[in-house]
Amino acid sequence: MGGGGISCEESKPTITSNTISGNSTTKKGGGIECYYSSPTISNNTISGNSATDGGGIFCVDSSPTITNTIVSYSPAGGGIYAAGGSVPQVSYCDVFGNAGGDYVGMDDPTGSNGNISEAPLFGDPGSGDYHLKSTVGRWNPSTETWVTDAVDSPCIDAGDPSSDYSNEPDPNGGRVNMGAYGNTGEASKAGGGVVRPATPTDLTATLAGPTQVDLTWTDNADNEDGYTLQRRQQSGDGSWPATWTTLRWLGPNVTSFTDEEIPEDGQYQYRVRGYNAAGPGNWAHPARIVVCSTKPPTPTDFAAGLVDDNTGRLTWTDNSDINEGFTVQRRQWVSGTGWPAAWTTLRWLGPNVETYDDTINEDGVYQYRVRAYNSVGPGNWARPCCVTRATAAPDAPSDLALTAVAGGIRADWTANATNAQGYTLQKRKQNADGTWPEFDRPAKWLGPTVESFTDTTLAGDGTYQYRVRAYNAEGPSNWAPYAQLDYAGGAGMPGTICSLAVTQANGEFVSIVYGLSADADTTVEVRNIAGRLIRAIPCGVASAGLNTATWNLRNATGAPVPSGTYLCTVTAKASDGSQTTAVRTLHVKR
User: Fold this and answer.
1) Within a domain: 126
2) What sign has the CA pseudo-torsion 510, 515, 520, 525?
C-alpha cells in the first residue's frame, strides 16, 4: 500500500476541507491513494506531493468523486493517476503543473464540467499558506489579518455552482471557491459581489477555406465584459504546447469569430472564455480542427503480425500533421478464387494513431491496408501486409501438374488451405542408372497465395519430379502427390521468353512476372481489348531468369483506368537480334 498523505482501502470516506502537501512515498499516491474505494474528495488542496505513480491522487479499481479540489505541483508521479479500470469523476477542479502529466491513464477533462488547468496562485506555499490570492481580500495566517494582492486566483468563485458557499465571508461572489478554504471563514473574497461570467459551451470550429476557420459558441453569461479567444498549434511530435496565443479580445454577447490568420497547414485548437471585473470565467472545452490544402501523405513502415491466436497487430508511421485520422481495411484470401476485390473497413481511427489490434476469429490469410484522410480527401494506401492465423496445420495442396517451358518447368497446383503461411516446393532429377536421389534441399519457399512457380534452375535435360506442401506455425501439411515430367529443352513458349504471369496484386497495381532464357532488351505494353495502347513500360535489358514489372493501373497521361479486360504484351529482343512476344489477358477489378 502507498498513500503518502491519506490511504483508502475498500472504503467510501468523505475527504473534505484538507490541505495535503509535502508528502512523498516510493509507492503509489503521494497525496491520496484509493485502493478498491469510492471516496468523495471535495474542497481539498493537494499540492507538492510525490510518488512513483499518482503524485496527487492514485486510483486502482476505484471510482472517486473529486470536486472543488486543487491538485497541483506534484514533483513526480502525475496529478490524478487512474489505473486498473478506475473511473474518477472529476468536476470543478484545478489540476495544474504536475510532473508526469496532470491526468494519467484517463481522458483529460480540462475545459469540461468546470475543470480548469491554471496556476492556482497560492498566497505563500513555501511557508505553508495555501489561501488563494485576491485583489479584494485574502486571509494571512501569519498576521491573522486580511490582505490584498495584485492578482486574483482563477480558483475563486470557480467551484460547483450547486455547492454551499454560505460560510464564505462577504463579498464572496455568490459561488464557492475551489480548494481547502472554500465555504469556510477563510475563503478568499471576490469582487464586491460581482460573479465571474458563466462558461461558454458548444464551441465548434469549421474549415471555411484553405486558411480560414469559422468559430461559434453559446453565450451562457449575462454579465461578461467580453470574451478572450486563444489558439495553439500541435507540435511536430504530436504534443500540444502549454502556451496558447491570444487571437482577439472580443466584446460582450459575441458568439462567433472568423480566424483568417492561420500561418500554415496543421492541427489547431481553439478556446474561449468570458471575463468581467471579478476576473475571467472558465475556458470552454477546446475545439480542434485540421487546416489543410492537400491530402495527407502515405503512412510508411506498415507492418502486421500476430500478438496471439486471436489478435493481429498493425503498426505504421504517421508522416503527417494534417490528417484527421486513418482508415484501416482488411480482406481474406479465398482458396481457389484469390483475393476478393472488395475490402472491409475495420475502423476509422483518430489522428496521431500508429497502431491497431484486430480480432481474428477464424484461421486464414488476411491482408491489411491503411491510409490517412483529411477534409481534402484520403491519401494513398500504404502497401498491404499479410497475417496468417493458424490454430491447426494447413490442408495439403492437390492437383500438382508440370509443364515444360523454354528454359524451365512450370509447376501448378491447387491451394486447399485457408491458413497457410506459405508453400514449400522441392524437386529432384532421376539418376542415369534410373534411381532417384533425395529431394533437393534447401527447398523453394513461396508465399501463402502462390499456386504456380516456374523453375529455371534445371540441371539439363532429363526426368524431374516435384512435390509441394503448405505450412504454418502449427507445422507442415502432407506433401501433395508428386508430379513427374520428361524435360528436353522445353516445349512451351518458344524463344527468349519462357514464362509470363500477370496478377492484380491489389486495387493499386498489377504485377507482371516474366521469365527469360537469356538477357534481353524488354518492353511491356498494356492494351485494351480493342488493341489500343494504354501504357508502355520500358524495362531495359533484363537478366536471364525471373523478372518483375509493375503497372500502377494508370494510362500514359496518369489517369486511372476503368475496370475491364486488358492485354499485357511482353516483347524481348535478344542480343542476336531475335525477338519474342508473349501475351496474357488481364481482368482489372476496381
Assistant:
1) no
2) negative
User: Nine-digit cell at 9?
Assistant: 482501502
d(CA 197, CA 195): 6
Quick one: 367 and 315 in the same domain?
A: yes
- Domain assignment present for residue 378? The answer is yes
| 3-state class (DSSP) for residue 193 | helix
| Cα 453 from Cα 335, distance rounded (Å) | 17
The domain boundary residue, chosen from 352, 387, 422: 387
Let me know whether 14 and 93 are in one domain: yes
Rounded Cα gap, residues 10 and 34, in angstroms: 8
Indicate if 381 and 456 belong to the same structural domain.
no
Q: What whole-number distance in Å separates Cα of residue 106 and Cα of residue 112?
A: 14
The predicted pLDDT at position 492 comes to 40
- Counting the structural domains of the chain, the total is 5
CA nearest to 130, candidates 170, 172, 179, 69:
179
3-state secondary structure 290-348: EECCCCCCCCEEEEEEEEECCEEEEEEECCCCCCCEEEEEEEECECCCECCCCCEEEEE
Which amino acid, 222?
D
- Is the same domain home to 502 and 584? yes
Looking at per-residue pLDDT, the higher value among 531 and 467 belongs to 467
**In this predicted structure, which of 124-138, 248-262, 437-451, 485-499 has the lowest mean pLDDT?**
485-499
Buried b (16+ CB within 10 A) or exposed e, 137-173: bbbeeeeeeeeebeebbbbbbbbbeebebeebeeebb
Confidence of residue 208 (pLDDT cuts 50, 70, 90): confident
- 74 pLDDT band (50/70/90 cuts)? very high
Of 426, 459, 487, which residue is a domain's last?
487
pLDDT-derived band at 442 (thresholds 50, 70, 90) equals low
Domain for residue 154, yes or no?
no
- Whether residue 357 has pLDDT greater than 60: yes
Mean pLDDT across the stretch 274-284?
85
- The domain that holds 275 is classified in CATH as 2.60.40.10
Domain that holds residue 383: 300-387
pLDDT of residue 490: 45
